[in-house]
Predict the 3D structure of the following.
Amino acid sequence: MRKEFSKPMVKSIWIFEWINSCGFSEVLPLDSSKFDMERFGIKAVSSPRHADCLLIGGYQTLKSIEIAKRIYEQMPEPKCVIALGSCPISGGMYWDSYNTVKKVDKYIPVDLWILGCPPRPEAIIDGIISLVNAINGGKND
Ligand code: SF4
């Protein structure tokens, strides 16, 4: 865990979503009544300036990763980043495009990778809760 998280998180985690392309298909249901992420203390916010955590997913292009960097820079400390799906790890099925970012963590530090193409909503919620637990030193387990 990065040193910025020297203190436990004593509030719900506020997330900002920067998800391109088909990766968004499994993020939208997080807000639905079926998955209802707010019951776990996970809240989506519309400004990076209010966010504790950046969810970055989908394939990133050389252009879109520059926007992602600006979003990350606008977030207040302490902040964390969760990368969703195979595309941020390797470029996914677009890996051989001249314009696809192969590894998002070359541009933004990533605290947690959630695998899948795309990851299921349950996996995303589980990953966010695991990260909050890690920040809190396991106190919320
Ligand atoms: S990981 Fe799969 S679902 Fe997500 S953006 Fe890449 S191809 Fe689409």
Residues 121-135 form the longest helix (15 residues). Residues 13-135 form a domain with the Rossmann fold fold (CATH 3.40.50.12280).
